[in-house]
Amino acid sequence: MTTHKKIIIEGVTESGETFRPSDWAERMSGKAGRTHHRRLVYSPMLQPTYKDGRKCVILDEALRTSNPDLYHTVLAFAKANRLKIHEVDDDHSNT
């Protein structure tokens, strides 16, 4: 079974401040989403979620191959805003 690494980008800065605007995770994830019956459906490769009560984005390493520009844009955004970033295996739970 092939597992992809996932990158969790937390909605908190390295200094512990909550990142604003509050809808940043949905905006970021929407870049890889699509519309279905006038509703946004997030890609499994870029999804908003919560971790410890804070908004996060899960970035699947597979996006690096399927859409390298978006993959690098997401990581550049996180780094520029000094957001906490860490990797987990695909089998993570309770994110």
Sum this structure up briefly.
By secondary structure, the protein is α+β, with helices and mostly antiparallel strands. Helices cover 25% and strands 37% of the residues. The protein has one domain: Uncharacterised protein PF12112 family, DUF3579 (Alpha-Beta Plaits, 2-Layer Sandwich), CATH 3.30.70.
Explain what the structure shows.
With 95 residues, the chain is α+β, with helices and mostly antiparallel strands. Helices cover 25% and strands 37% of the residues. It is globular, with a radius of gyration of 13 Å. The two termini are 21 Å apart.
Characteristic terms for this protein:
single chain; 95 residues; alpha+beta; Alpha-Beta Plaits; two-stranded antiparallel sheet; 3 helices; globular
The H/E string reads EHEEEEHHE
Shape: globular
Q: What share of residues is helical?
A: 25-40%
Domain unit count:
1
Layout of SSEs?
Elements (H helix, E strand, L loop, with lengths): L4 E9 L10 H7 L3 E3 L2 E3 L4 E6 L2 E7 L2 H4 L1 H13 L2 E7 L6
Antiparallel strand pairs: 1-5, 1-6, 2-3, 4-5
